[in-house]
Amino acid sequence: MRLHALGTGADLSSKFHLACVCCGWRCGPEFRHRCPECLGALECSIDLRNARLRDSDQPEIAYLDFLPVVAPGFLDSGLSVRTPCRPAPELGAAIGLPRLWLKDESRQPTGTTKDRLASVVLAVFRQFGIKEWVASSTGNSATALARAVLRDQSMHAHFFCGSDFMADHQLEPGDQISLNTVVGGYSDASREAQKFAAEREIAWEGGFFNWARREGVKIAYLEAFDTMPKEPDVIVQAISSGMGMMAAHKGAKEYLATGRISSMPRFLMVQQDTCAPMAKAWQDGRAELTDRDVISRPRGLARAILLGDGRASYPYMRDIAHATGGSIVSVSQRGMEEARRMLLEIEGADVCYSAAATIAALRVEAREQRISADQVVLANLTGRARNTEALL
Ligand SMILES: Cc1ncc(COP(=O)(O)O)c(C=O)c1O
Ligand SMILES: [Zn+2]
């Protein structure tokens, strides 16, 4: 469905346009996810010539010039907060990387970095006049989006959730929100959600392919780059679809282009051994995932990254790993347990297994000498634990 900018069309076009990351096809600002020529992901290309950081506690206002949002009035204050980015020399020393930094996204209001995407996605919806839409998630995105919906009485959202992930959704269905359960996991829920949206001709939020999501989570990385006295050599984050890492890569490209950082960090993307289709394909040197890579009902401690079907987004992750000299790895359940305990005991950081997976991966990379002790490493702790992830 094509939805054109309402009212403020001219302003929008002067701020950004959409471009296909695969073939370069371009169009003006509209809520469209994929390239009509090659189905590639669209990314918003923002005019950064006069971009500057503003003085504001609200992250989206501080970084407004870097976002596809034309006016502060489209944003709802209080959906996300700036989070600490701090050195962790003790934990770093314990894993062989003393120049470790932690970006603590578990401090966001609903406990994950997804509050950042909720803020920008809702602003973009308001900008395009979209008031009713459909989304699906493993829990954290829907929880963050639902909170944002409840703060705007004109919004209505339909969430689809796999039955395996019901307990990971902390949202109250009501007048503005419906929650539909689909037998299975995230991929099953996503499929049903898209069908529902098409049948009723309402907007499909888009998940990985929603460029507004990526613009929102990008801010966590811009904040980190602006906080760190020395820019990171390596960035590490847990991946499910890889939306967060794609966002980080875009932010890093923008900061490189505008001279705010001087070189592209290596991107280390982390899955868990029980659900690691992308890490396996990367290790095999494969360009794509096939039907045989799909895990229909994935299980594992890191619940937020249990996406069994990574076919649509893997090629983007592979390209980023290649382009940055990075890698896609998987960590063991035990590795995550140990890392989570170390984060709590050494750093006082009570985070979820997906966040702890970053430290588990770094430990292995340092031990195998693929990252050296002199490297500045930034780990994004993307969330805190929900009731489904009690520390064992
Ligand atoms: C806590 C947490 N970490 C990491 C991710 C990674 O997701 P993605 O790769 O789709 O951005 C998610 C997604 O739900 C999450 O909730
Ligand atoms: Zn294209």
UniProtKB/TrEMBL annotation:
Its cofactor is pyridoxal 5'-phosphate. SUPFAM superfamilies: Tryptophan synthase beta subunit-like PLP-dependent enzymes. InterPro entries: TrpB-like_PALP (IPR001926), TrpB-like_PALP_sf (IPR036052). Residues 82-383 form the Tryptophan synthase beta chain-like PALP domain. It comes from the Bacteria. The keyword Lipoprotein does not apply. Keywords: Pyridoxal phosphate. GO terms for biological process: alpha-amino acid metabolic process. Pfam families: PALP (PF00291). This is Pyridoxal-phosphate dependent enzyme. It comes from Streptomyces sp. R28.
